[in-house]
Structure formats: C-alpha cells, structure tokens
Write a structure and sequence with these properties.
mainly alpha; two-stranded antiparallel sheet; about 270 residues; about 70% helix
Length: about 270
Amino acid sequence: MALRDITLGQYFPGDTPIHRLDPRTKILLVVLFITAVLLAKTAAAYLFLLAVLAVVVFLSKVGMKALIRGMRPVLMIVTITGLLNLFYTPGEGEPLVQVWIFRIYMEGIFATIFMVLRIALLISCTFLLTYTTSPILLTDGLEKLLGPLKRLKVPVHELAMMMSIALRFIPNLIEETDKIMSAQKARGADFDTGGLMDKAKALVPLLVPLFISAFRRADELAVAMECRCYHGGEGRTRLRQLRFQPADWLALCLGLLLCIGSWALSIR
C-alpha cells in the first residue's frame, strides 16, 4: 500500500449539490447515516444504505475509486474483524466447516458480511464529509453546532480549530513521509524486508526527520497565527456566514427518512 492511498483529510473542490450544502447539514447527515447503519439488521436494510451511499457519491462527483482507495489503510482491521466474526459467531446445527477448534456456521458468514459492510459504510460517510467540505467550513460548522456548550465554559472554538488543523495537516504529513522514505531508499534504506524487529529499526531514520518536520510546521503555524493577532474565537468574524437554505432542510428530512427506512427494513 502506497502512502498516496491515504486520503483522509483531503478536500476535493467542486460545485455539486453535496458541496453546496451547509457544513452543519453535512455533519448532521453523517450522524443520521451512522445511526441508520447501526439500526440496520437485515440484508434489505444494508442494500438500501448501499444504494443511498451510491447516489450520494454520484451527486458529489468524488468517485467510487477515491473511496475504495481510502479504504486500503484500514483493510487489515476490516479483515481481522471479519475473521473474528466468522470463527467466533455461534450457530445452530452442524457447522459448515470445522478446522481444529475453529467452526464456521451460516450465522457467522452472515455476521461477517454485515460487519464488513457496516465498517465500510461508516468509513465511507465520514470520508465523504471531508472530501466535500473544506477545513475552514468544517471548523465553522462544528463550532456552530457545539455553540450551546459555550455556556458550560467548554472551549468550543479551540476544539473545532484543533480538529480542523489535524485534518488539514494529515495530507501534508503523508506527503512529507513519502518524500523522506524516497530519500532514505535512495540512500540504501530497506523498509520492506526482514523481520518485525528489523522493520521497526528501519523506521527510526524515518520517524526522526518526520517529527522534526511536524514540529517545525507547528511552530511556523503558531508564529503565523500570532503575527495575525489571532487570539481565539472572541470577536472573530467570518468571511462566509452560515445560513440554512431550503436544500439543507430537505436533506435533513431525507436523512430522518433514511433512519426510519433502515429501522423499518430491519424489523423481522
């Protein structure tokens, strides 16, 4: 897997119906979609959610390839989760396959398929949020949604800003890591062969310059913010004022219907 396959935090500019939605709407829609995924219990419900996701991907013009490429870094976690569900889900009657102490039942196969689909759907909807929302708008949307917590002295603006900065610098750190690895390989470094300890030792020449670069970027960002007299959200104005449009209300209503549909299709 190449580092360029990690697409978390990337933003794909566009002028689609999904891009034009208010960032608060998209955050709430992600929450509603996650709720619908957690409510899904049957094959019909999962097919319904996959169809909805395909329509959203088509409208956003991000492309299914970008989502599949973003899945590659978590492929190992998905595989391990699927195997655990396959071998440790009990069933009724005789097992389909039995190898040593491992038994595979029909219930385990269904549990594995549903779990893999659930993880894929959860990751895809969060990726679509970052793909179609710029970090600045995402920060403003989070701050607006969490605004009531300010009365409880929760540093809402600082939390939203930190999350936005973290998402913004993930692609930069990945690009920096790729450059350092290429430079180290040109000098004879080997990151692919050897045992686990050998690979861990080979990462030391990579991690040291990566940490130095990350701290340097953080220091430059802090100096730039200080030079621009940045001191939190107090008195801060915004270039774009967030206002709900009819399309946002329609999208939220469709999100609620999505949850109801997923629940209805899961009733046995």
